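Q: Give me the 3D complex with protoporphyrin IX containing FE.
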Amino acid sequence: MKLLNLRSYLMLFSATLLMVISMQVQAADKNAMPHGQMPTYPGLSADALEEFGGEAGVHAWVEALFHYIMLDTRINHIFREFGNVDRQIFLNTQLEQMVLGGNVEYQGASMEAAHADLGITLTEFNAVVEAAYNACERVNTPYSVCNQLIAALAPFERVIVTR
Ligand code: HEM
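A: Here is the predicted complex, encoded as structure tokens.
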């Protein structure tokens, strides 16, 4: 019971944190990012990718992420109809290493282009965020390390959620 309370508290705390970060990034965006580049989370530590376990750690996390996504009936139909899980695991492993500060070239479409025709709602986006936290638990990523990645991905919400 106590564990459940702690988990709810942590989820509420992280949701608030993400909102604040997202607002800060949006504010910074207007002045500092005139060419539409996607800024990364300003609080990212220099060794964030290493803390995540490098490429192998990110790959294990992405596999766990898709495990939970495909179990979630709120969103799995979207991935079944429009996605290709193997391709998405490959490309997300690149992307997530990049947002954690790794010197990795992401070879997929922009987040805007990849999701433009999917009509994704905020509720669906949040279901993916939930799967992301569950993936951290599954691969035993420490909470603070997990939060760095999820906070770095949060600004993509602005281009992924279109409905
Ligand atoms: C921060 C959150 C997200 C990230 C980082 C992300 C990342 C990606 C990446 C890397 C791709 C591959 C692009 C390519 O094929 O070139 C992709 C495609 C896709 N994403 Fe996301 N995504 C996110 C959120 C979502 C959400 C919320 C949904 C649906 C609920 C979703 C559904 C899809 C689908 C169906 C595709 C395949 C599109 C296609 O191949 O035409 N994504 N995403």
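A quick observation: Residues 16-37 have pLDDT under 50 and may be disordered.
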